[in-house]
Amino acid sequence: QSTFSEEQSIISYLLSTSSMSSTARQHGLGQEAAESLKKRTTRSLRYAPTYHLSFSLFTDGATPNTWDINAAINEYMKPMLDVLGPIHNFTIDTQVQLYATPGVQSQILNKEHLASFINAAEWPLSPSIGGAPTVNFIIFVGNQTIGSDSAQVENSQSWMIPQWGSVYLLPLAPTEQHVSANALKQPLLMFGGHLLTLLGTPQSGS
User: Fold this and answer.
1) Collapsed DSSP state (helix, strand, coil) of residue 29
2) In angstroms, rounded to a whole number, what is the distance separating the alpha carbons of residues 127 and 48?
3) Which PANTHER family does the annotation name (predicted)?
């Protein structure tokens, strides 16, 4: 009975926010649990049988201009995608964009900067393809970092954008021409965790 307790809590919360809520509220969740589930559901994408994953490398200069993204995906994300295979199909594309100017030029990003960092007007980001929602994973090579007062980030290099994707700031030497699979390990592992959150995957099995 305890195995699916988290799933049952999610269902109870969704029912309590629907038009059929009167009965559900009588079986109501605690305030803390409801707030936690509200936060999760507002972050998550709507369920779809197929999701399109778009991996983009943006740099503010001419380098790096190549990356071992396919090898990194196979090593650091494919095992998780295989586990999710019975529930979702995933399509993948990758791109490299040079001389990409972010929406915010400040070297230290605060909470307000994070919302406008994505330069949607100039960056060629994938729209949803054929009805399949797109999840964008952006690695930006530059010298910017996130200020420690930004509560919505997990570290000084990455943040998740609810119902959209996530961004990872990757510091590299200016002379670096290529991004190796090893250099992509931490960004891809972070993207994997963010993907689970965006899909609304239960955080525990108990």
Assistant:
1) coil
2) 15
3) GPI TRANSAMIDASE COMPONENT PIG-S
Tell me how crowded residue 135 is: count the other CB atoms within 10 A of its CB: 24
Q: What is Dmax (Cα atoms) for the chain?
A: 63
What distance in Å separates the CA atoms of residue 22 and residue 9, rounded to the nearest whole number?
Answer: 16
Q: Are 191 and 72 in contact (CB under 8 A)?
A: no
DSSP 71-128: HHHHHHTHHHHHHHTTT-EEEEEEEEESSPPPS---SEE-HHHHHH-S-TTTS-PPPP
- Beta-bridge partner residues of 170: 141
> Distance (Å, rounded) from C-alpha 165 to C-alpha 93?
14
Assess if residue 204 is contained within a domain. no
Helix axes 31-43, 5-16, angle to 10 degrees: 80
Q: How many domains does the chain have?
A: 2
Same-domain check for residues 38 and 55: no
Q: Which helix (H) or strand (E) covers residue 191, if one does?
A: helix 185-198
Cβ pair 131, 46 in contact under 8 A:
no
End-to-end CA distance of the chain: 9
Q: Which tens digits make up the pLDDT trace of 20-36?
A: 444 444 445 556 554 54
101 and 14, same structural domain? no
